[in-house]
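Please review this one:
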Amino acid sequence: VELSKDSTEILLLCMSSKFLRSFAACAGAGIAALGISETGLIRKMVFAQEQPNEGRHKVLIIGGGTAGTTVANQISRKGQITEDKITIVEPSQHHYYQPMWTMVGAGMYQKEDSRRLTKDYLPSRSQWIQDSVQSLQPDENAVTLRSGRKLHYETLIVAPGLQLDWHKIPGLVDALEDASCPVASIYHYRHAEKAQRVLSGLTHGQAIFTVPVGGIKCGGAPQKIMWTWESSWAAAGTRPKIDIAFASPLLTMFHVRKYGAALDEMATARGVETLFGTELVAVDGPARRATFRDVKTGARAERAFDALHVTPPMSAPDFIKQSPLAAANGFVSVDRGTLQHARYPNVFAIGDAADLPTSKTAAAICGQAPVLVHNLHQHLAGRPLTAVYDGYTSCPILVGGGKLMLAEFKYNQEIAETFGAFGD
């Protein structure tokens, strides 16, 4: 697919037709950062101040990111549960449209463009508790907040997103915080603009882009930023002087065979060195050296760098990992079709924190949300859960030159392409 150079158009075209069809039913959380609210797909909502309520919350939602706000608004629009019965626990005053951080790192946007007020994306009469979760007690139908407040619920929706484990790579935090060190990451609001400074300032030497072991959000982002800058360096005439390496624990550029094969060919054609089967385990910022571990043998090797872009390890938040809701991998154990918890029928999960064998994207959330909302209402009515999520997700991979590859698939890596509906 060939795109215009307008970065807003690129972002819009990253959405599959299925994603767009369901988009009007989504909260539109954070997408207003693109300035497209006039399309009618996104509506601003007036926020009512939190009303104290220490009774049982009919619907308690943990998380006010894309997943949490989407579900809250879909429940509200369905109309069977009044907005005052919806409670959202979210500590952040701001909501971030995180996919834009790739564009920030590419110099197309300022980081402030990705930020809006959380209150603008919550149902107007819902309760917003601006606090974070300390622990979960599903046997008591309760959630304890960091402030010590304890909330009881009739139904619980777990949607807190992922935890970024920067500390698991020794030396990484210090390198990121050092403005003079050429280490950056688009995976955080604070660091995205540094990625632009580091990569735009590179005129020769070694650039390394990394992917961690384990699931990450927006699985295409680690190479989106790489391909974007590879294309920019080529246009600037500096590409012959820059060596690019892509380090991943996988044995291919992308885990779905069809797209991985095409991206592997692209890496070869464009002279990108692939360090497959490896993970970044340490960073020595002052020495400009990175240590990688072979995921099969455990052997370690150091590589010098002039620019290092890091995708940090990610996991479910600690309060989930330490709770009875967690599966063995730490994510919320839910039925992959109904999104209902395996042991606690009044608990559902959506988005990145759910233990679902599909890529963690906004497109996945738009596929999951209508299923969860329908099944939540079925549960409350004492009826069978009949809606089923098929694992649909999409990963738009910008490959530079105004082009992208849109990977669309369902569970078991089943290809589910819908983008062709837009024509050539």
